[in-house]
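Retro notes
What went well: the complex prediction finally ran end to end.
Inputs used:
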Amino acid sequence: MVMRQKRKLGSLLLAALLLLATLLTACGGTKEKETAGDNPAAGGSDSEAVTLKMLLIGGKPVDYDEVFGKLNEILKEKINTTVEAEFLDWSDWTQKYPLKFAASEDFDIVYTANWAYYNDQALKGGFLELTEDMLKEHAPKTFEALPQTAWDQAKVNGKLYMVPQNSQEVIDKVVLIRQDLVDKYKLDPVTDPATYAEYVKAVPANEKGVSGFGAKPADGWKWHELDDVLLEQQNQWSVINTGIPLAYSLDDESGKVFNVYDTPEFRELLSYYKDLADNGGWSKNIVNNKNDVWQDMKAGKVASYAQNLGTVAFNVAEARRDTPQYDMMFVDLTPDKYKTSAISTQNGLAIHATSKHAERALELIDLLQNDREIHDLTMYGIADKHYKPIGDDRYEPGPSAANYTGFSNWGWNSLLNRTDTSYPKEADDMLASWQDKVHHSALETFVFDDTNVKNQVASIGNVMLRYAIPLEYGLIQDLDKGQADLIKQLQAAGLDKVQTEMQTQIDAFLAAQN
Amino acid sequence: MLLMLAPAVLFFLLFAYVPMAGIVLAFKQFNYDGGVFGSPWNGLDNFKFFFDSGDAWRVTRNTALYNIAFIVVNNVLQIFAAILLFEAAGKWFRKIAQTIMFLPYFISWVVVGAIAYNLFNFDVGTINMLRQGLGMEPVDIYNTSAYWPFILVAVSAWKTLGYGMVMYLAAITGIDTEMYEAAEIDGANIFQRIWKITLPNLMPTVIILVLLAIGNIFRGDFGMFYNMVGNNGLLFASTDVIDTFVFRSLTTSNEIGMSAAAGFYQSVLGFATIMFANYAVRKYDKDRALF
């Protein structure tokens, strides 16, 4: 009996070991196969039917099945391809996006942007490098249409990983306010930081249950959401990497970086914020807020927020349609300052490094950007349902417009884009007035490679979340002490080392340009 | 008999032993090309971030202290509730009480986090509404880290009470009723019976459950801490545990090697603790040790 049991135990262990070995080799095997799949030549011609998986940011539109169903009919005919899109919702895309790469999930095309991990993933090898030959062969129209500077701007360490959008954008941020409240309480017109502060304080004082300003902080974003306007634009600085509090002044040709927290301007801004916070300008629990700020504004719970002009202009158009009782308007708080032109990587599409259908993916991108029918369909939905085309360059939202919107189809913005007839004229005017103030800095395409200092960068990110966010949202009483703590903690986290590293890279970058 | 063991063996092989190979990531500079096994080695670099950050001690201490508090408070309450139900109640009351206490166990932490937000919110939270109704000053719970150790321990106790209680109730039911009858004839009152019969007979169950829990003492309950606290920096001093710290570091800097290193660190500490605890139990009573 004992003998038999022992034998049984032995064979069981043996079986387990075998299983273990198989599993381990299986893992290794897949990996090798995948690497082999990197070879773009494996794509083959259009004779083979292919399904491309596409990763986009934003909520899945209600009418996705209908629109993409139609898209697939067209694509099947044109390049024998179908597309399946996966959507990473706005609420947690910052967490899911990098994990998609880390887990090496199976997808071919992915939305990317300078604000959506482009440099990060490019440096880590998440994207397939796109050579000029590949583009010429498989995305010839895009290669023609997009100016050379746009391609150059998308290069990371001299290599291209993205097909950028083809569109001129100015990305300065403005604030969206409720003009009806300004009128109701006879406030001074909001034009600059001081009048804006009056507005943000007056709203909660007069309207019960309405916050003057709303934001969704601490979802990984490490700045006060007014910092773009009041710190960067106001002082004409540029922060190089939003995960590190180092900036250079746009006027400084030598590109010398400094710690933004260790400046009198930042200290002054802290007092400004504290004043707003103490006067109920925003909820005391703002760092735990889980709501979408724009929805809160539409619901009348929040009276202003900061975003780039393009976004708030659409907000205004939407508000005029859905909530006409609120007279929403955007205001440039820094009208006299430099404006920064978006570099091409503001939106774009990249190909996953392990995609087995890189060629087909490029063909698809080429169609998305340059085929009128496909571009219209993917950008605006189905004609007469989601939009009404007007001429060649304008459209009106259709009855179901709300069912096909809200995700990053801007990845293939191109010259075929139409303008919404309801797009506020004020936004076009503002954009036009900005054009002669656009400032081009030699460093605008500089990309910081943090390989040598990643330990420090990780710690700095934690320090910003832990010390800077509460300080900026006025949750810490003693500002001087709070600022001193923040700077001390940053130094302990190794900011000096990062600064030295960044300066070295900048100097080399500038030297190479001249 | 061995065949019956097979599913469990298979389970642990697949979900505990095979993934262990992933430990190598802690010593690698992970990149997508190389993957888990092909990426270049980088020695102890991944551990540097954790220890150089100056947060290692704080988050380790927080994790251990929270788990000790959870183990002590939860077990005491669970045993107390189990004895109470066993001694005091009729069948119907017992069943209903059991079900009600068990319910929170099934509520997801995400939902608990939302409930907490609606309770503790400064402007419109239930607690502050009540306080204002009674003419008291509102309290700013989300910006005061001192409250949070108590809140978290209380929430954990609330959520696990029913589950643990059922286990202890089962153990109590298993105690030989002849002992109680004999004690009753000898004139022992109810407290003496609990103290001299129920508790000593529960000890083996308590020891096993606590020993199992101690192995995880350096693992924070991520779902709980993240959903209750979120990324609220003001509360980190008293609520940051290893798991939330590592999560933030991974998602913002997106370095897999580093989080693997932190996980490895947790495992080593957990291994050391359970070996020590088991050794201590062996010393005290050989039969009650796990191994």
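What we learned: The longest helix of chain A spans residues 2-37.
What to try next: split runs per interface for comparison.
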